[in-house]
Amino acid sequence: MTFSTRVNETRLWQSLMDMGAVGGLPHGGCCRAALSREDKAGRDLFVGWCRDAGCEVTFDQVGNIFARRPGHDTTRPAVATGSHLDTQPHAGKFDGVYGVLAGLEVVRALNDADVETRAPIDVVVWTNEEGVRFGPPLTGSSAFAGATEVAAVHASLTLDGTTVRQDLESTGYLGHERPGDRRFDCFVEAHIEQGPILEAEGRTIGVVTQIQGIRWSRVTVTGMDSHAGTTPMNRRRDALLGAAEMLVALNRLARDQDPWARLTVGRIEVEPNSGATIPGRVVFVCDLRHPDSGILDLLEQRIAGSVNDIARRSGLEVTIERFLDKAPVHFAGSLVDTVREAARLCGYPSMDMLSGAGHDAMNIARVTPTAMIFVPCKDGLSHNEAESATPADLAAGANTLLHTLLARAGVAAP
Amino acid sequence: MTFSTRVNETRLWQSLMDMGAVGGLPHGGCCRAALSREDKAGRDLFVGWCRDAGCEVTFDQVGNIFARRPGHDTTRPAVATGSHLDTQPHAGKFDGVYGVLAGLEVVRALNDADVETRAPIDVVVWTNEEGVRFGPPLTGSSAFAGATEVAAVHASLTLDGTTVRQDLESTGYLGHERPGDRRFDCFVEAHIEQGPILEAEGRTIGVVTQIQGIRWSRVTVTGMDSHAGTTPMNRRRDALLGAAEMLVALNRLARDQDPWARLTVGRIEVEPNSGATIPGRVVFVCDLRHPDSGILDLLEQRIAGSVNDIARRSGLEVTIERFLDKAPVHFAGSLVDTVREAARLCGYPSMDMLSGAGHDAMNIARVTPTAMIFVPCKDGLSHNEAESATPADLAAGANTLLHTLLARAGVAAP
């Protein structure tokens, strides 16, 4: 009875702990920047596990990994799942990794139950979701969706001064397959929520209906370096003070919009960044998110108005360049229904929700029916070594994934 | 006639240009962080010039350089002048360097005029006035004044991971003399004003009567790293946003005080400083200056109240540690009178003023009668590559220095 098939909670947890030890950090988290030595070690570990589980493993030209559990019907496109193994600098053990290892656990559970599916199942590792070591983020899924050229990915420079192509070759993950040549029946990505809502609402499964749009802009504020002791307060052109006023004003703009608007300045560079010099130049990155493109447009206008006002009042110059623009994504209705039904079948309390974070699924949704499954994480905390989730919730998400994939793949007659 | 002795304006200017080429930057400035390779090159150039001018050059245990022009009376303590050769990261050619090379030009002019003084004249280079590559600033003069232990200076770590002692050895500037063992008759430091007042008032010479007190505090703001996309605006503990509010509030506090209060945040470090992560930790340095210690106490109380209020409202923790405290300094009245008289003798319009910047002179004033001579700089600009002064004004300052030193040293009977 495939209805009663369940994943092995202990094995899933153990795999997560084993992967978390690769690039492990002192406070329980890990650091595996894409195509670094640590990321290669994590990939190698995963590939070994997949081969042990009977999967055929291939790579494409940007290092995306496809581990295939064969289906009965060789003509059907694969039902796909997965996420990423690369991490933020101070990451926990679950962001991305969970979606990959939940897919592997589905394969292992189907093996245990001796279930043959009609369609094959592909477990995918997308290259460089986080964009820490080279940019832009979501590289592998973007190439798969045709939004980024392979040549551009290969030419990208990493923080270590290598090109991505060099790293793909040296790590052994440069494949022949063109990204996107492989057709999927659908793609379902499991992930920790990375927010506080499921925990606050007491639900186990988040049925993700859409992903917020994300826009990143670089704001450059130019004043004049001068001496902290001798320059009267009213003769300064202090770029850091101007930037501080902008941060406060931009935060207020987002809060005044609606509960879905999110604005963050996480990165700032100050020149010359010396105690006794009034800073002449500040560059900060403004991360803006909302589920509605129209509201994003409106907020961008208000941001520009606000920073220009502050600059004018303060004798500063300011420029804004948008360098990342991910449109809001609505997932495929019937696939979302299947996820909701799988959670119900397994007896897990669920709720529809949207994703505040960007995910590889937002790229794959351009070319394949796509959905996501969220599970709770402690205090909504992510991009932090203290990121945490329970073995039971992680297994619930994997069971929901299992029955979603089974519903799409179909079971071959025994 | 020593009254008619004058410095060589062209030679002084040329020496300033030659020194400015050491560690030269693209926009006409230079960068010679203390005891760096560039600073060593600058020191070596200066020492060579001094030896060519007949001086005996020695170093003390913290790398302070003393170039002595012998006097007729070997029992008299030296009349001293000088400043520093190390610079800010984006410095001009004049800050500090002018005071050292004006001293050298006095020696050269006395050589040209064949004047023998009674007391010797020492031209001093104080180590690490700026405090860019290691802290605290004003290191060499502080050790000379007995306010900093030699062992503590030697153990300080530089930004390059070396100790100061290692750098003193490798650059060849580790001497045997204990800082402060040498007694001076007086110390007179010439410097560009680094502010706009002389230019605005149309005066050539600033007779400096006092230096503002300076206090540096390290403010550490702790929140929580979390995900920029998924953390609702009202559940964030954003250390950078909190720090931005503090910067705006602190600036207002200083402006509301009086025209002498100066408050600057020039240095800020953000962790993890990644685009998609709400920053969990920010450290900034608050530079506070005022001529009155009582007002400095009051402002520090208000600063603490303000940052604690903001932290409490924002769910952040904050600590303030003061790590530099230079009391306001009043210079020696009779020596200040001598400077004023020297300017009058040379026919330069002068005015009494206070210094907004800290200088080595504020340390030396603890152990020796001390004064300073300011000359105008363009637009009051300093700590900036565009820092500028005219050859005529620089020569006027050096002539005022020459006649101040002559008045103290006395002329040996021909």
Any chance you could write out the topology, listing elements then pairs?
2 copies of one chain form a homodimer.
Chain A: H1 9-20, H2 37-52, E1 56-59, E2 65-69, E3 78-83, H3 97-112, E4 121-125, H4 139-144, H5 150-155, H6 164-171, E5 184-192, H7 197-201, E6 205-211, E7 213-222, E8 226-227, H8 239-257, E9 262-271, E10 277-278, E11 281-290, H9 293-313, E12 317-326, E13 329-330, H10 333-346, E14 350-355, H11 360-364, E15 370-375, H12 391-409
What does this 3D model show about the protein?
The structure is a homodimer of 414-residue chains. Chain A has helices at residues 9-20, 37-52, 97-112, 139-144, 150-155, 164-171, 197-201, 239-257, 293-313, 333-346, 360-364, 391-409; strands at residues 56-59, 65-69, 78-83, 121-125, 184-192, 205-211, 213-222, 226-227, 262-271, 277-278, 281-290, 317-326, 329-330, 350-355, 370-375. In chain A, helix 1 packs across helix 12, helix 3 (97-112) crosses helix 12 (391-409) and helix 8 (239-257) packs antiparallel against helix 9. In chain A, the strands form three sheets. In chain A, strands 1, 2, 3, 4, 5, 6, 13, 14 and 15 form a nine-stranded mixed sheet that branches. In chain A, strands 9-11-7-12 form a four-stranded antiparallel sheet, covered by helices on one side. In chain A, strand 3 (78-83), helix 3 (97-112) and strand 4 form a beta-alpha-beta unit. Chain A folds into two domains: 2-212 and 328-409, Zn peptidases (Aminopeptidase), CATH 3.40.630; 213-326, Alpha-Beta Plaits, CATH 3.30.70. Chain A has twelve helices and 15 strands. The first copy, chain A, starts with 8 loop residues before the first helix and ends in a 5-residue tail after the last helix. Chain A is an alpha/beta fold and 414 residues long. Chains A and B meet through strand 8, helix 8, strand 9, strand 10 and strand 11 of A and strand 8, helix 8, strand 9, strand 10 and strand 11 of B.
